Amino acid sequence: QVQLVESGGRLVQAGDSLRLSCAASGLTFSSNTMAWFRQAPGKERDFVAAIIWSGSITYYANPVKGRFTISRDNAKNMVYLQMNVLKPEDTAVYYCAAGSRLLLDLGSSSSGRNYAYWGQGTQVTDSS
What we know:
The chain is mainly beta. The chain has one helix and eleven strands, in the order βββββββββαββ. 3% of the residues lie in helices and 49% in strands.
């Protein structure tokens, strides 16, 4: 059974930094493209960042480019999202997702439809 468990969400203030973690189990982690999506209150779920199976290529949504960094540790079955210079508009539930290793370009890796497994989410809230 595949499980993705996010952690690290909390109350933050504008300008803060925060690292989210996602622990994966029940899948061959090193064979999956991993991604982070987020859903703000009353809005649709949006792509945030993706990292291909090897970790050699990453993609970011424009609103987070230059502020967020996605990384993975295949030895630990972990994927991370380092978030810097947080803004009020970053408030959302952040979801970790696992998809096929064939998700190698921005178009395919940024579509939630291409991810078979999802975590339960972790809340990041701006308290400014």
